[in-house]
Amino acid sequence: MTCVGIESTAHTFGIGIVKYPPFQILCDVRRVYRPVSGGIHPSEAAKHHMEKAVDALREAASRVDFRKIDIVAFARGPGLGPCLRVGAALARMLSLKLEKPLVGVNHAASHINIARVLTKAINPVILYVSGGNTQVLHVSGDKYVILGETEDIAVGNLIDVFARKAGLGFPGGPRVMELASKSNRLVKLPYSIKGMNVSFSGMLTMLERLIGRESVEDLCFSLQETAFSMLIEVSERAMAMLGVNEFIIAGGVGANMRLRQMAGEMCRERNAVFKDYPPEYYADNGVMIAWEGVVQYLLGERLSIEDSIVKPRWRITDVKPPPARLYEN
Amino acid sequence: MLNPLPQGCTRIRNLYQGAEAIVDLCEWMGTRVVVKTRIRKGYRVRELDDSIRKSRTLREASLLNSAKKAGVETPFIYHVNPVEGWIIMSYVEGESLRRLQYSSIFPNLINRLGIIVGRLHSAGIVHGDLTPANVILSDDRLILIDFGLGEYSNEVEKKAEDIYTLISSLAPLSNYDTLVKLFLEGYRSSTGESAIKIEERVKEISKRGRYVEKELRR
After folding, report:
1. Which of A178, B6, B64, B201 could bond to B160 as cystine, CB 3.0-4.6 Å?
2. Of A166, A324, A159, which Cα lies nearest the Cα of A258?
3. Interface pTM (ipTM) of the complex?
4. Are residues A245 and A287 in the same domain?
């Protein structure tokens, strides 16, 4: 079967097409919104997506014959309402036009399942890190279980807000990573772990105060070392608690090389395996939505046009994960 | 993988190996002791790793001591080296409550544990990993061990989490309801008024449903 997936939860408008079985990526079109100043402005991002939608669709159609599409999937949430509605509208249109079933998928689950299909991880602890989310998860039977999460802001938000205040622009991740590599001087920042939860708001406040007093390279280095150590530590705790020896990272912050390097080191020290995959699939994309569309379709999910309202606050705990056998062999 | 031990210690056997620390039973100055060593983490830069292991080692030692002052029995600390990240403490001989959960005295022990946890919380100390595996019955005394995740806190949420952790570890037992009742009776008797708020929060936490069964932990 062939599934087209539409991503439009935040800054990226993406159209991806996958075929299964076996898993194969047929096309991956992305249009990324870059704010002129400040962070993501929801209605501006939505406008960007509307403007780019047709162009992106044309590009996808030039690569894949849309008459071969069997399923139309879209990211139904969580995300920014105005942005979600653009993707939803396009998906409804495609579903009606192609006369193919519509499937609304969860963005977080999509990140996790693209990671799993690319790595063949059977029973991993998952660190899901992006601009809006920071969670440590595990698939237990037919549920996603959140073992730990941020008690305030997401790690991607910490990076983006710091970067913006330090004049590094949006998104902050790539610039912070680049500047961090030029320093090895640690400025002491709050290291806040509570059980398997983390907290970043104290660190952000401290960083904001230090802008101008410490070099921006040192601050980037210290932010990365401190925040990522916290994330890897809670992930390791989850692995120890469950006796799990596979680890994957999902979500945009996973594109950071230093975070993945630390993940590899942690796993090596405990004889576990960090399963990595190409960095471009850590970022938001349509391919992961298409794959989650296949997964949910196989689980029997169908969405009627009338019920296809977006869900900006959709928690992953309300979503069914695929059975592990989908990722075996 | 064997970790280096403090000078003068001879390892008898490993007791526990967690994500953060290794606990060994050792011979030291002619007595049996427990050595808890916080492991170096290669993924953290050295400076950060040193400072984390140091502050946590000191905090744990301090909590063990403060608990004692609040009338809660804990192992005695013989020696601490925050730089190396180890604590040498007395070895508590006995059975963990986890091993006693099917015995006829278990309900009474749970009631006594309630009193002890109440004392701990009244002194502003939260254990952080309150499972029957961390309570040892030694010569009819109940001794609380492993304050590795503990902290000084008077937050209702933290205290409720302690209780929730314990209660959920009792869930598989057939006399669960009685045990919870006995535990809370004990807890109330040593905390008084403040127990009400904390118990309400425990109910709230159990409805959130994002906690996994914590008995998986050990």
Report:
1. B201
2. A159
3. 0.88
4. no
